[in-house]
Design brief:
With 361 residues, the protein is an alpha/beta fold. 36% of the residues lie in helices and 24% in strands.
């Protein structure tokens, strides 16, 4: 079986998750490490992915925002040790060796630039999750991908991503009603990354907390109009650098548009040691609910729930499925940006259409 050659751009939590999931998909293979750093500081030439695990947490976090691009031709960590480490400046020369490049940088600073840039040379998949800016991101990536004849699937993950699809399905089958989305409790990678980008911040984690009272009202059949702040609160733990202005950092967090400005946000300052000890887990999840009516006023309630021990690993699994779809769409001659709405469900699965019809339909 000819395997889909996957590239991973960005080797932080999300990139490492993608690497581990590739090994569970026999129709894919993992081929080289691209970095902006001195190659010798990432891993010695030829050491590949397994050696990158020896980097410190700080180095990995710094690289998560697009500093490293990983591409391999293996299906397990042992074989990955033969993968080369190459300067990011040479990535364009690999465009004929990669079928799909998965972009694992952050939505605030990396993906708006990386999306259109890498769509020129590769089929791509990204997890851009700034909801308010998705139309803008789509237009930029679409123009670049169409001009190059490539496929770029944007905003793939669980929200945006699977939750988006559930909102569409629920609204389609119960058009008279209201849909609600609740996130958490759990760590938001995008929001945490946004805080870490603030001057003076050494490390940070942000928890999204759903309003349980509002959630139960909807489960009880109510259809209240809720503001963003009435559905969730945001809890931040921040380690400031020595001498940093904590008051300024807190103000910048609480007034950050698209991230915190519309929420009741609490900022707690802690040490890096406490952050590492007590806030290193990456659990998350949430609910999409729709309360609607059909026929002569019969109530219909739909709910989709995720409970995730590892947010990045689950997001990685969605990215992998979308990479399969990107490859298949490309093989059909399609081009341009796509979202989860544009992908036939069967294209996401490694199971054959015949088996899907027999076992899942």
């Amino acid at each position: 079986m000819e395997k889909i050659r996957i590239g991973i751009c960005g080797y932080g939590n999300l990139g490492r998750g993608v690497e581990s999931e590739i090994a569970k998909n026999p129709d894919m293979e993992l081929a080289a490490v691209f970095t902006r750093r001195d190659v010798s500081k990432v891993a010695h030439a030829g050491a590949g992915v397994s050696s990158m695990r020896n980097l410190s947490r700080g180095e990995l976090s710094e690289g998560a925002g697009g500093d490293a691009c990983l591409v391999t031709q293996t299906t397990d960590a042992t074989a990955a040790a033969a993968a080369p480490v190459v300067s990011i400046g040479e990535i364009a020369s690999w465009k004929d060796k990669i079928d799909v490049l998965i972009l694992c940088g952050g939505s605030k600073s990396d993906l708006p630039t990386q999306g259109p840039l890498y769509a020129k040379d590769f089929n791509t998949v990204d997890s851009f999750d700034t909801h308010a800016k998705i139309p803008e991101h789509f237009e930029a990536v679409d123009a670049a991908a169409k001009a190059a004849g490539h496929i770029s699937i944007i905003s793939a993950g669980w929200d945006p991503g699977l939750f988006s699809l559930m909102r569409l399905y629920m609204g389609a089958v119960a058009p008279e009603g209201a849909t609600y989305t609740f996130w958490g409790p759990g760590v938001s990678q995008g929001h945490s990354e946004a805080i870490r980008g603030i001057e003076g911040v050494a490390g940070a984690i942000q928890y999204t907390i759903p309003n349980e009272g509002a959630l139960e009202r909807i489960r009880g059949g109510e259809t209240p109009e809720l503001t963003t702040g009435e559905k969730h609160t945001r809890l931040c733990y921040v380690a400031a650098k020595d001498g940093a202005d904590k008051a300024k950092i807190e103000t910048e967090i609480k007034t950050m548009p698209n991230y915190f400005a519309d929420y009741d946000t609490t900022v707690n300052f802690v040490t890096l040691e406490e952050l590492s000890k007590n806030h290193s887990k990456m659990k998350h999840g949430g609910h999409v609910l729709r309360t609607g009516k059909t026929g002569e006023g019969n109530n219909q309630s739909i709910e989709f729930t995720l409970k995730l021990d590892s947010n990045p690993e689950f997001t990685s699994s969605v990215l992998i499925a979308c990479a399969r779809a990107a490859y298949r769409l490309s093989q059909k001659g399609e081009s341009g940006a796509k979202t989860i709405f544009d992908i036939p469900p069967a294209m996401l699965s490694q199971i054959t259409p015949e088996k899907l019809r027999k076992e899942l339909l």
